[in-house]
Design goal:
Chain lengths: 313, 115
């Protein structure tokens, strides 16, 4: 049942009144109330991770200190987009997590896939782009997640990176993803097919995040979902409501100072947002309070010779 | 005197309930907004008034789900069909994951039947 014309008009009006620059689409948003603020307490931070509330506070503080921030990052390029680095695309296709709360696995796999391609110099759209497989979100999530009822309870980026470091991740063909709790059902020769992280890093300053994005590649990031996020169809997202619906993780694949926003790869299929992507405003929804990057690998599958890292500018 | 509240869960799909004016019916539906799927609620008539809240699962990781609580207050005598569809707003209705329906009959001054 789509949103009524009146409701859609009201949302548009709220967006206009808030002086933001994004486009809500038709939606079926149910009326909510302020008690949903409690939801930010429903997420239990992982080790050394801030709560959603703390993430938002840190990001918002940076927006208030914008002048300082701009000076700090003057050395970083004004724009990065790993989908187009001199015509080369290092970002794999948009995926769909379906009805399982596996966003952490999708954000992690996407970030690892891009970093592998950047290190090996194999863009998705190169003639040899198909030599590198997409990675198995199912392996990460259904084998690495030790929470009970993982498809309802979600996961943590630090835990996903630890699993990809200690065990590695197999290609998607070895354990194809389907939404729904299930056993760890890898292919028989999975141990021969892992890509394993050697080092990863947690970033907590925006200059470090921009520098990483400019020099090394995409980053995992998590943020608070507000009820209007689902209605995003384009532009730079800034929440227009206080109604919170939990936390979510994506792969940050770029930024643009002119837009004052981060470019993020979501895992809700290509029908959502800008073909599956979203621009999230600097300092909004806790997007830039903390990000995680993959630095190097102990093992690739398949094994290909390393090339120099690709700089986007 | 406290207001009587009837609690309905997904297992009560298809049920019919009779209530008196000012009594409440609360639907408790599992939901995971971080997947993009949400319960869209629709009612017929003006017999009930709606209020919706989302309660997160405690001890959850990032992306964890919770419970959508939809509270209906019996406002006027009559019958209301409450329909809920779990779907992504940008996808066609035929791709919805679940559907749920209950019928609420609001009685006037006379006593309501046992539920």
């Amino acid at each position: 049942m789509p949103m009524t014309t009146e409701e859609h008009d009201a949302l548009w009006e709220a967006v206009r009144a808030s002086n933001v620059n994004w486009r809500p689409g038709h939606n079926s948003i149910t009326d909510l109330d302020e008690s949903e603020r409690r939801l930010r307490l429903g997420y239990t931070p992982g080790p050394d991770e801030p709560s959603l509330e703390e993430r938002e506070a840190r990001s918002a503080e940076r927006v208030m200190m914008k002048g300082v921030l701009t000076a700090e990052v003057a050395a970083a390029p004004s724009k990065v987009d790993w989908r187009n680095v001199n015509g080369k695309n290092y970002v794999t296709g948009i995926k769909d997590q379906g009805s399982c709360n596996s966003c952490v696995a999708f954000a992690s796999a996407a970030t690892i896939e891009s970093r592998v391609r950047i290190i090996l110099g194999v863009p998705v759209n190169a003639t040899n782009g198909g030599t590198l497989p997409d990675l198995s979100e199912a392996h990460l999530f259904y084998c690495g997640n030790t929470l009970s009822d993982p498809c309802f309870r979600g996961w943590f980026p630090s835990a996903a990176l630890a699993f990809a470091t200690n065990t590695g991740v197999v290609p998607a063909s070895c354990f194809p993803y389907t939404p729904g709790n299930q056993p760890c059902n890898r292919c028989d020769d999975w141990q021969m097919k892992t890509t394993r992280i050697a080092t990863s890093k947690t970033l907590t300053s925006v200059p470090d995040m921009k520098t990483w994005l400019a020099e090394k590649g995409p980053l995992i990031t998590c943020f608070t979902i507000y009820s209007d996020f689902i209605a995003y169809t384009g532009g730079v997202y800034v929440p227009t409501t206080t109604r919170i619906e939990g936390g979510h993780c994506v792969s940050c694949v770029g930024y643009d100072d002119a837009k004052q926003a981060w470019l993020c790869k979501n895992s809700w299929g290509t029908g959502w947002g800008e073909g599956g992507y979203v621009w999230i405003g600097y300092g909004q929804v806790g997007i830039d309070a903390m990000m995680w990057g993959v630095e190097n690998f102990a093992k690739f599958f398949p094994s290909l010779p390393r090339r120099h890292a690709v700089a986007p500018v | 005197m406290s207001v009587m509240t009837i609690r309905l869960r997904e297992a009560d799909n298809g049920a019919s309930k009779r209530v008196r004016i000012a009594e409440e019916v609360v639907l408790e539906l599992q939901e995971s907004p971080s997947t993009g799927y949400r319960w869209a609620i629709e009612t017929t008539g003006d017999a009930v008034e709606i209020e919706s809240t989302f309660i997160p699962l405690s001890e959850a990781g990032i992306g964890g789900g919770g419970q959508r609580l939809v509270r209906f207050v019996a406002a006027h005598p009559g019958t209301a069909e409450i329909r809920a569809v779990l779907r992504r707003a940008w996808e066609p209705p035929e791709k919805s994951l679940k559907q749920y329906a209950v019928t609420i009959t609001v009685e006037g001054d006379s006593d309501a039947d046992d539920n």
